[in-house]
Amino acid sequence: MSSQRRDEEVLRRVLEVEAAKVEVRPDALGAIRARTARRSRWLPFGAIAFTAATATAATLVVVALAARPTPNHTAPDPGAVTAPATTPSPTPAASAPPTSAPAAPPPTRSSPSSGTGITSLAVYYVGEDRGQPRLYREFHRLPAGSSPADKVRAAVTEMLAQESAEDPDYTSAWPSGTGVLGVSVDGSAATVDLTAAPPDDLAAQQLTWTVAAVLGGDPRVSLRHDGRDVRTVRKAAALDTLGALWLIEPQHGATVARTFEVHAAGAVFEATARLTVRKGRTVVTEETLTLSAGAPARGEARITLTLAPGTHVLELYALSAADGSVQHLDDHTVTVR
Fold first, then answer.
1. Omega within 30 of 0 (cis) for the link into 250
2. Do residue 38 and residue 91 come from a single domain?
3. pLDDT number for residue 203
4. Number of CB atoms found within 10 A of residue 257's CB
5. CB within 10 Å: which end of the chain, N or C, has fewer?
6. 3-class secondary structure, 168
7. Are 309 and 35 in contact (CB under 8 A)?
8. Transmembrane region positions (predicted)?
């Protein structure tokens, strides 16, 4: 055995020993399945997967599953804004959302003004990952002005709105009724004045990551409560703050074409994740995704699916190295046209 292979084997054994120390609740899998079973839009029996040899009969079932990591093997910036740019929106009908994005939110969440366009902005919410609260991101199409301060105000206002998340598994760490009093941006620093102070560090991070998604990088965010300085916050480490796995696209509630791309990201052991597609209670397909980087870095992967029309649930998760149990589940329900 070469020296390089021997070193790799030693490293693999060390990682396996550390992974075995992870404690998994005995009822974790049952709790995940119970949560998944609550999806009200599941249908009874659906499509049946078939192989490439029968791909010419593609009108009924899955025909293509092509997993591939992104060409750039550097870890993606989880705060980067990758959604479509701002488009003018003089009337509600002038800028319809793309089929892979959720519908525009009700206008009561943010009042448009002269010069306002519809902008796709990243908004962070709180979800549960192995019993721990973690941040998850959605892109929302919101009315916002062209300045960074206008966009920060729109994204934070949406974040604070109760039940504004498209995914019902996500929520906000902020108390109900919290509003935005003012926002100012000076280069890589932002000041956000709210009607309430952050109740805990998680709420402060939810706001900070949302602001950072607008400004980029790791801005300094000064929090104020009714005009009084509260604290200054920077983004905490992604590994300790974000959900281990994200389904980025399609988002929960999206309507997609029969052939569409699934975009996943996360930080998991050996960069290995699983994707299960269900129609009703029927498993349509199960695939292994290899992310472009493994934990502690965050990697990405994309896979192209062709599904029969109907409602499908996409489940992204990892399997425990210790006992094979499901971990880090993030699931989205989508409608295939």
1. yes
2. no
3. 98
4. 11
5. N
6. coil
7. no
8. 42-67
Asked if 143 contacts 154 with a C-beta cutoff of 8 angstroms, the reply is yes
Segment 167-205, tens digit of pLDDT: 999 999 999 999 999 999 999 999 999 999 999 999 999
* Tokens describing residue 138: 């959605």
Answering whether pTM is above 0.85, one says no
Q: Which of 224, 232, 132 is nearest to 181 (CA)?
A: 224
Measured CA distances, 50 to 59, 101, 278, 287 (Å): 12, 28, 14, 13
Distance (Å, whole) CA 317 – CA 322: 15
- Give the total number of structural domains in the chain: 2
Query: Domain check: are 227 and 154 in the same one?
Result: yes
pLDDT band at 334 (very low <50, low <70, confident <90, very high): very high
Residue 82 near residue 70, CB atoms below 8 Å: no
- Does residue 76 have a pLDDT over 80? no
- 127 with 190, same domain: the answer is yes
pLDDT higher at 78 or 32: 78
Q: Rounded to the nearest 10 degrees, what angle do helices 148-160 and 201-215 cross at?
A: 140
pLDDT band at 65 (very low <50, low <70, confident <90, very high): very low
Range of the structural domain that residue 267 is part of: 22-74+242-336
Mean pLDDT (whole number) for 317-331? 95
Q: For residue 213, give every residue at least 6 positions away whose Cβ sits within 8 Å of its Cβ, in sequence order, or none.
A: 79, 80, 81, 121, 122, 123, 124, 137, 155
Structure tokens at 22: 């992870």
Largest CA distance in the chain: 70
